[in-house]
Amino acid sequence: MSNPVFNNTAVFRDPRSRGRGQGSQRGPVLQGGVPTAGYDTRYDPATLEGMYNAPTATTAQTGRLTYDDVIVKAGGLLAVVVVAAAATWALVPQTLLFPVMIVGALVGFVLGLVNSFKTNPSPALILAYGVAEGAFIGGISEIYSGLYQGIVLQAVLATMATFVACLVLFRSGKVRVTPKFTRWLMVAMVGYLVFSLVNVLLMVFNVGGEGMFGPLRGGFLGVLVGLFAVGLAAAMLIVDFDSIKRGVEQGAPAKFAWTAAFGLVVTLIWMYLEFLRLLAILRGSD
């Protein structure tokens, strides 16, 4: 199971088959300075030689996806999330914090689904998602910060460190996205989603005792589940990197840098929230 953002976009999927005639097109073959049959004879040998000696067009010149495109778009989207979160934290009064946080979460969820299933990326909708999620993150971060001093900075640093570690491992080739890896991730994700749903239902019906995170997310079990969730998010980051690499190598259009940035930010937000919850459980047991 890969990130739905990438899985629902054809240019980032692992192709099952390739057409035999889709290789790079070769220029005309010269025989004694004369183009062979089947090629346009309007070009003289000197012109053709100049074409051969010309430098290869870059991906930027051909309008293809590049890693720089993804970095710039992802950095910009993260900046939108951070600014929206900081504005919510600093400007929204305590009496309105919870409603703003809930609205941000709901709007972010809807926009996340819309952006995940769009055939062509919409920068406006993706940026709107960043604003909505920023409002949610700003609200929930302020709540956690009021309970545990310094926890937000710890969660941010942990998320950044994990991102860098995943990127280094992926670039080094020590962690590879294989069919076995994706099958394991699919089973683990489904299991975690079912577990989370059961925990929410128990909270709603007040079964198993009260708790900030539900009866199944407290104490030692909560720590184990939190570590498992962080591990899942890290594995999803590895899959995201692989999807982006595939998109670049397959010559995806440059506009899909927005899709790649959106997918990365979705995973990073999930990881940050899991770190925030895990650290809160650990700090609460001190």
From TrEMBL:
Keywords assigned: Membrane, Transmembrane, Transmembrane helix
Annotated region described as Disordered, given as residue ranges: 1-36
Compositional bias (Polar residues): 1-10
Pfam family, one: BaxI_1
Transmembrane segments: 70-90, 96-114, 126-145, 151-172, 184-207, 219-241, 253-273
Superkingdom of this protein's organism: Bacteria
Signal peptide region: none
Protein name per its UniProtKB record: Membrane protein
